[in-house]
Amino acid sequence: MIEDTVTLGVRMDRIRLSVPPGREFHGTLRLVVGGIGARSRLTYEQVNELQLAVESLVAHRRANGDAVVVQAGVDERGVFLLVGPFEPEDDPAGLRVAERLVDSVGVVTLEDGQWLELSSTNDHAAAGTS
Which of 10, 71, 98, 114 is most buried by a 10 A CB count? Predict the structure, then answer.
């Protein structure tokens, strides 16, 4: 019987990935976040920075529960991620790294823990070109 499960749900331009919080699943997060970034036509550098931001957060925070969830929204403007739930705690290292890598980072406290909102804007959309 396998206890660790990874689930991926896709609805239109919304994606939800749930993985066990163990370090061995960070590569799965990186791969999926990279695919989401590439689909939204982010530059290679932006995709890499988005991946690093998510990795930094999951490496420096403790999951609040048996899974780390990444919910992604993709539109013509870019990628918008919600990552969590994490135990409420002060995480200066992971948060500082993420803030330097993506366009915006926000902390949201929900009933199941803290979630972090990340966004990376598509340079082409921001410039008004396709």
Answer: 98
